[in-house]
Amino acid sequence: xxxxxxxEPDNSLPxxxxxxxxxxxxxxxxxVYAHVKKGLLDAxxxxxxxxxxxxxxxxxxxxxxxxxxxxxxHGLYWPKDQNNPLxxxxxxxxxxxxxxxxDGVPTRVRAVVQQAAQxxxxxxxxxxxxxxxxxxxxxxxxxxxxxxxx
Length: 150
Ligand SMILES: [Zn+2]
Description:
single chain, about 150 residues, alpha+beta, N-terminal domain of TfIIb, 4-stranded antiparallel beta sheet, 4 strands, binds zinc ion
């Protein structure tokens, strides 16, 4: 049987960022509204996706490869925006992570993880990817620790 003939587009896979090819993270219209310049809200359709690549200049895109660049978005987290905290919701920065590593005790990271578990946590509505910052904070902590050879 002809393999190409059998091949159908896999709709279960998220579309990839038109710029860097990274898998998109589906976000709600609410998240896009909170992070995109008001005049550009119609620039992409639903569902919208977040490009989680650290270095890519695209913030959001849709299935038709229409994009919103970092320059037209705000409240993005580090390192997508170098001037912003890693977790905007609790204000945890990359410097806080380095301080934790210098202390040898992850006091600041633990505080964010605890706060994020509270019912009042706002990560999912405040974070640019519409998700809790915990996994991202922990990943960053582990990566930083590895980089420092600890
Ligand atoms: Zn990208």
